[in-house]
Design goal:
By secondary structure, this protein is an alpha+beta fold. It has one domain: 3-methyladenine DNA Glycosylase, Chain A (Roll). The chain is 16% helix and 29% strand. Strands 1, 2, 3, 4, 5, 6, 7 and 8 form an eight-stranded antiparallel beta sheet that branches. Strand 3 and strand 4 form a beta hairpin. Helix 3 packs across helix 5. The protein is globular and about 40 Å long. The model has no long low-confidence stretch (mean pLDDT 93).
């Protein structure tokens, strides 16, 4: 069952935690790909110096200020794309970065896009990897996550214990880098980097 806008219209920390175990689905002309979210990070701008919105409203960050339940997609290190869920009330630039997925559907299509062999862990264990595997690009910037092309859905699969840790690669953010705003399913082999506890 597809997730409704109410899910996104909540605190960024609550949504980031509740993302674990949900399924991210992307439908394209090539077919449907989907993965179970096993790692996500909360970004609570504009005060959070790790958030892109800490520098204010720009053309790049405009989607983060919009209504909840839309995609904020950006270039990661100028190489690959990364996908965020815009959450909370409009005007509050909060987002949840999807960091890793456990592949569920469209595995062959994902592998073809990534040019990788059958080891599924290498397809989606990082924010840039998963967007390539699911064909999420800048064309999805601002896309409504309550539509029929890119969305989250509920899962009947059990969710293991959820761990918390500091976010990845945000050392530049000073004291904000120490916030335990990264959530991951403990013991899941698809989590991007340790702790894989």
């Amino acid at each position: 069952m597809k997730i409704t806008r109410d899910f996104y219209d909540r605190s960024v920390l609550v949504v980031a935690r509740d993302c674990i175990g949900k399924i991210l689905v992307h439908r394209t002309a090539e077919g449907e790909t989907a993965g179970r979210i096993v790692e996500a990070e909360a970004y609570r701008g504009p005060r959070d110096l790790a958030a892109h919105s800490s520098r204010g409203l720009t053309k790049r960050t405009a989607a983060m200020y919009g209504p909840p339940g839309h995609a904020y997609v950006f270039r990661l290190y100028g190489i690959s794309w990364a996908m965020n869920l815009v959450v909370g009330a409009a005007g509050n630039p909060h987002a949840v970065l999807i960091r890793a997925l456990e592949p569920l559907r469209g595995l062959n299509l994902m592998a073809r896009r990534r040019g990788k062999p059958a080891d599924s862990r290498e397809l989606t264990n990082g924010p840039g990897k998963l967007t390539q595997a699911l064909a999420i690009t800048g064309d999805d910037y601002g896309r409504d996550l309550c539509g029929d092309q890119l969305f989250l859905e509920h899962s009947d699969l059990p969710v293991g214990p959820v761990g918390r840790s500091a976010r990845i690669n945000v050392e530049y953010a000073g004291e904000w880098a120490a916030r335990l705003w990264r959530f991951h399913e403990r013991g899941n082999r698809y989590v991007s980097v340790p702790p894989r506890d």
